[in-house]
Design brief:
The structure is a homodimer of 418-residue chains.
Chain A: H1 2-9, H2 11-30, H3 36-42, H4 49-62, E1 70-77, E2 80-88, E3 91-96, H5 102-112, E4 116-120, H6 126-141, E5 150-153, H7 159-163, E6 171-175, H8 178-187, E7 200-204, H9 210-222, E8 231-237, H10 245-254, E9 258-261, H11 263-272, H12 275-278, E10 282-283, E11 297-303, H13 308-319, E12 324-328, H14 332-341, E13 346-351, E14 368-370, E15 378-380, E16 386-397, E17 413-414
Helix pairs in contact in A: 1-4, 1-6, 2-6, 4-5, 9-10, 13-14
């Protein structure tokens, strides 16, 4: 709340600093050096944006304390009690790009989770970042949180040297473009939490409900096409080419989605769609199935009937990004076969890929979405900033007392967690 | 059980192969190229060793199935159900040195956890490794486990190239010397589970019980001095120098432990011990406090009374290896302060550091002890070979239906796990 109040009190000076960033950015945008979407993300004066930042701090305050949660208690022997409990990871390096309001959110998450954090902002938001970070530092000085526990790095070119300091930094969390994530994954000497790509796929099985397919595919593609959880590839069982795909394609074309079709799907759609819609169909190139379009573009591929589920699984495991993939089918058996076969963090059945999100999953806040195979996978909440420690308390016991002939035996009795 | 039965049936050929390894190793040992302890670890014909290997397979079979355990179920909305469940990590690379029997244990753990595994044995156990691995492969061919899911690499120099294949291998588990672990940590492009050092410390507070100190320190040092969880450094509150330390030192010297003391502890012990014992005391060098002796050697350091607990915490966080550290005190408050301050996987109070072990913790089997800050920390059981996935099943819902004016609200209702 100290941070919240300080930011609220200094709104004017923050917006003044932000205006300087915006001015520079507008010039870069005019020169074509900066995309208009980055410009939009940078602007803290947009209606509601500053208040959302303040509300975010209150939301983090309301989250359950993640530190010291006991998830295992075992009596190893009389008076020898083992306990496993959550604790912070240590020092986080959080790197983000244009959105200056993320600094406040991330600082509050680090404090809530009792981690120390080094925050590195993007160069487009330098002035906003400096203003917000100075206010946060001043606010922390009046609290029990050590001021050094949140360090803000504004120096350019500091990222690469930081990524080598594995003796001091335990986890890197990049919040920004795929390029930023990939750069961190390549350079970091410590674990990186996140995902570089979001190439999500939906497979339409032969028994899927047509209306459901229309709803789910249209939402997955058009709700927010630039998001990592938007669908990029549609796999279609060949029996669905004439029964389901035309309605799906019509709805997508009505929303200005470009359809890049393989031969069979283009032929079927050309036959079933009105001529003016059919002329809009594009032909897919091989590269389309490996591309995260992040735009109103969908690649479509047909799967032959005799091995469609297996081919869908193989396609997703080979061309996907292990993020979120979905099957549309009336059969639980088919859904289970699909979900057991794909190697994805999130496996959806009959619902939009867009639901892959920490807020929507009910985690309260989102640190990121991870496609890592260890630590945390899928949408990551505050839990992903925690690890566990073991505490064992005894009455002078030694290990030599146990086992062998006449030695004591471990009881390994499960104890209640409270 | 197929592996168990095949190994039992082919015991003779395995021991014959092992005898070849032993012969070569004995020659290297005579030349001083190989330590006698490696020779001992290599010998599968030692009484009970083969049966232990077979029993280990039965033990793994008895473990609870770790796959598909549901640990979160949430209703996001009517008919939109989220479930988090455990699943295998993917492909493990397990590298081990002299102990040939570990192959069978690790293969069974990989199968139980539904991970694929690439196993790489040490060069000293090449023949044993080949014999056991051929039998395992043949045994798997008669089961539903894909033969390729357990791959055994005998080629020399294969380790470094494998450590670069992060697109295929998800986790490396080195089982062997500190050098092996350090090598993997340095070279691997994927996460490494384990610990390079085990520099464990015990701190004796002023109010500790003398007999308890004697028991715990002697056990921690002498039960198995070559283990990673043996104590290497003893920190002593200056008030305990004359009240507790002499009894501890006497018991250690009686067990042939070399004591490397700082000035104050050496002075106090010289005063309190009999002259013949006092002559055995050594002086510590600075480097001793950074050394994992792995032998009957203990470094002793005195902490001044006015800041002993804080100094102990600082010493452990600076010189320790974040593995297992212990406080001896009658006060729960002091124990908590100590445990909250140290950054160790295992924090012990009034018991031997030797209890840090997967079997002793009741995990049934041990994959290793991790000092990592993410994924798994402390003794790691089968759980450490698992990650989770999210499954969401719906009835055609899209994300655009939610939020905003008139939109649906998420219910985020916690559901029972069963």
């Amino acid at each position: 709340m100290a941070i919240h109040d300080a930011l609220a009190a200094d709104k004017d000076s923050i917006l003044a600093a932000n205006a300087k960033d915006l001015e520079l950015a507008q010039r870069s945008a005019l020169n074509g050096e900066l995309s208009p979407s980055i410009l939009k993300r940078l602007d803290l004066s947009r209606p509601g944006k500053f208040d959302d930042m303040l509300q975010g701090l209150k939301d983090v305050r309301e989250l359950e304390d993640p530190v010291g949660r006991v998830d295992l208690r075992t009596e190893l022997d009389d008076g020898l009690i083992l306990q496993r409990q959550t604790c912070p990871i240590g020092v986080l390096l959080i790197i983000f790009e244009a959105r200056p309001e993320v600094i406040a959110n991330i600082a509050s998450l680090a404090i809530k989770s009792a981690n120390a954090a080094i925050l590195k902002g993007g160069k487009e938001s330098t002035e906003s970042f400096k203003a917000i970070s100075t206010i946060i530092s001043k606010a922390l000085a009046g609290t029990e949180v050590p001021n050094d526990s949140i360090q803000l790095v504004t120096t350019r070119d500091a990222v690469d040297p930081l990524l080598e300091l594995s003796q001091y930094i335990d986890l890197v969390i990049p919040r920004g473009s795929n390029e930023l994530v990939r750069h961190c994954q390549r350079k970091a000497h410590m674990p990186v939490l996140g995902h570089a790509d979001g190439l999500c796929t939906i497979y339409i099985h032969s028994d899927a409900d047509k209306d459901m397919c229309v709803n789910v595919v249209v939402d997955s593609k058009t709700d927010y096409p630039a998001a990592c959880n938007a669908v990029e590839t549609l796999l279609v069982h060949e029996d669905s080419l004439s029964t389901i795909l035309p309605a799906v394609a019509e709805a997508l074309l009505a929303k200005d989605v470009e359809l890049r079709c393989d031969g069979p799907s283009k032929a079927a759609l050309s036959h079933h769609l009105s001529p003016d819609l059919a002329t809009k169909l594009q032909s897919a190139q091989d590269a389309d199935y490996d591309t995260e379009h992040l735009d109103l573009i969908l690649s479509i591929k047909t799967l032959s009937a005799n091995s469609a589920v297996n081919t869908a699984i193989e396609h997703i495991n080979t061309h996907g990004s292990h993020h979120t993939d979905c099957v549309l089918t009336a059969s639980k058996e088919t859904a289970d076969r699909f979900s057991n076969g794909i190697d994805s963090a999130c496996k959806f059945w009959n619902c939009s890929t867009r639901f892959c999100d920490g807020m929507r999953f009910g985690f309260g806040t989102e640190v990121g979405i991870s496609t890592n195979k260890v630590h945390a996978r899928g949408p990551v909440g505050l839990e992903g900033l925690m690890i566990h420690e073991y505490r064992l308390s005894g009455q002078g016991q030694g290990a030599a007392m146990y086992g062998g002939k006449g030695g004591r035996q471990y009881s390994h009795k499960k104890l209640p967690l409270a």
